[in-house]
């Protein structure tokens, strides 16, 4: 963001980010920019001045969330298996609460990995590292691949009650994580 924005330009940018964040979270990433501008009470030119492409607007919203997810401290207590399962559950819950994030994590409509890497956030790399560590520790089945994790996340996030019923989401996460655990390992 340029340093010398006028006060009204700063307010407009903040309003666009607020509205886009809400719209992407509830309706997904396919909402057109002109609709976001309309809901924010600004023109599409105003949106374009701050975010030259829709991808830039999506990045501004989702990369902030990626930074938050990666900044959440791994609790010191817990082995590599616990850290993996905790982060896996965190990603599922985050996507269940935010439709745009779920779409991006699934790779539909937006290349989150490329944008995240460009911004210095390697969410996929972090999850891959946690998976490899948990597999080396014998907590996660050795035959599980990163693509399996993405499929499980998408499936859990698409549960009809995922966004509104925390108990249903916890139940489906438990089913998924039970399936990921190495033989003889329990929660």
TrEMBL record:
- Would the keyword Transcription be found if you checked this record's keyword annotation? yes
Q: Which Pfam families match?
A: TetR_C_43 (PF21597), TetR_N (PF00440)
**Which residue ranges traverse the bilayer?**
none
Which residue ranges carry the DNA-binding annotation? 32-51
* Keywords, alphabetical: DNA-binding, Transcription, Transcription regulation
All copies of the HTH tetR-type domain together span 10-69
GO function terms (MF aspect): DNA-binding transcription factor activity; transcription cis-regulatory region binding
**PANTHER family for this protein:** HTH-TYPE TRANSCRIPTIONAL REGULATOR BETI, HTH-TYPE TRANSCRIPTIONAL REGULATOR RUTR
Protein name (record): AcrR family transcriptional regulator
The scientific name of the source species is Catenuloplanes atrovinosus
């Amino acid at each position: 963001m340029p340093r010398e924005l006028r006060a009204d330009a700063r307010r407009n940018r903040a309003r666009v980010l607020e509205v886009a964040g809400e719209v992407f979270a509830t309706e997904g990433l396919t909402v057109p920019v002109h609709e976001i501008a309309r809901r924010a009470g600004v023109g599409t030119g105003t949106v374009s001045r701050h975010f030259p492409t829709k991808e830039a607007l999506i990045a501004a919203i989702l990369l902030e969330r990626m930074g938050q997810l990666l900044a959440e401290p791994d609790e010191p207590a817990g082995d590599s298996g616990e850290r993996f399962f905790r982060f896996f559950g965190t990603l599922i819950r985050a996507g269940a609460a935010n439709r745009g994030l779920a779409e991006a994590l699934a790779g539909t409509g937006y290349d989150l990995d490329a944008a995240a890497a460009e911004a210095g956030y390697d969410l996929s790399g972090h999850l891959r590292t946690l998976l490899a560590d948990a597999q080396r520790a014998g907590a996660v089945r050795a035959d599980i691949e990163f693509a399996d994790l993405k499929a499980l996340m998408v499936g859990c996030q698409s549960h009809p009650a995922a966004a509104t019923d925390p108990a249903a989401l916890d139940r489906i996460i438990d089913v998924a994580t039970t399936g990921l655990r190495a033989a003889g390992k329990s929660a």
